[in-house]
Backbone:
């Protein structure tokens, strides 16, 4: 599934902006589940770089061990995970949160995840899976559109409304299922309700048959820093059952993790 990247303006090169470094990150981000191996030309096209520019960056990444090549196709190596784990290791909260999430997943017999907001996407920072409930594979670092996920809407609800609306307008929602809400005004109203109730349930808007419910993880100042969710199959757990029987346990787990901050 393709996900939207957060909109960014391109600053002018200067003392505060290293263009070559930015282009290197752009090349890394061009690799994905749908494009795990690419030719030089494909990388150049997907990043908007010249072939010569893309080649210099790919060869640099290859020398550093982040990219490998068979002479035609380029692919990321496992060493690229060092970049993501640098974030996780700098945030030991997630190591401490994992036992809480494991207990919750065992209690409700459903998968449990934590995510943060980045631009118009959520990024998974921890996941405890008990069932294979989605067609796509999710793990730490996976990205999904914030607008049609329970954690995403909850995190969007913590933003000032003009900022939240601007993010929705920057990446207009796509109809991923027949249930997906794509009208921005309707989404703003749903997110306003989420803001009032401090939890969010999304029923089959990301994927047919998938239902999830999320609660906030907050810091000492009460600022929402992440979201915790439970996700399951609609044919096994209805929205009402999830709200009535799982939301209290989810909220308690989110509160436990919040106290660790």
Residues:
């Amino acid at each position: 599934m393709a996900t939207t990247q957060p909109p960014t303006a391109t600053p002018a090169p200067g003392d505060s902006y290293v263009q070559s470094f930015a282009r290197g990150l752009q090349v890394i981000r061009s690799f994905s589940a749908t494009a795990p191996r690419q030719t030089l030309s494909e990388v150049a096209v997907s990043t908007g770089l010249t072939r010569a520019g893309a080649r210099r960056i790919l060869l640099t990444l290859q020398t550093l061990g982040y990219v490998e090549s068979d002479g035609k196709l380029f692919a990321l190596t496992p060493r690229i995970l060092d970049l993501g784990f640098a974030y996780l290791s700098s945030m030991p909260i997630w190591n401490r949160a994992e036992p809480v999430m494991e207990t919750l997943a065992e209690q409700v017999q459903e998968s449990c995840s934590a995510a943060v907001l980045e631009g118009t996407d959520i990024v998974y920072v921890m996941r405890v899976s008990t069932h294979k409930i989605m067609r796509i594979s999710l793990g730490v670092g996976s990205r999904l559109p914030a607008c049609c996920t329970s954690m995403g809407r909850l995190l969007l609800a913590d933003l000032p409304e003009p900022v939240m609306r601007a993010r929705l307008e920057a990446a207009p929602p796509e109809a991923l299922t027949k249930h997906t809400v794509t009208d921005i005004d309707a989404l703003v109203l749903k997110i306003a309700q989420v803001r009032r109730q401090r939890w969010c349930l999304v029923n089959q808007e990301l994927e047919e048959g998938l239902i999830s419910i999320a609660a906030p993880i907050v810091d000492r100042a009460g600022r929402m820093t992440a979201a915790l969710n439970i996700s399951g199959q609609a044919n096994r757990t209805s929205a009402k059952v999830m709200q009535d029987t799982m939301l209290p346990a989810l909220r308690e787990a989110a509160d436990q993790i919040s106290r660790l901050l």
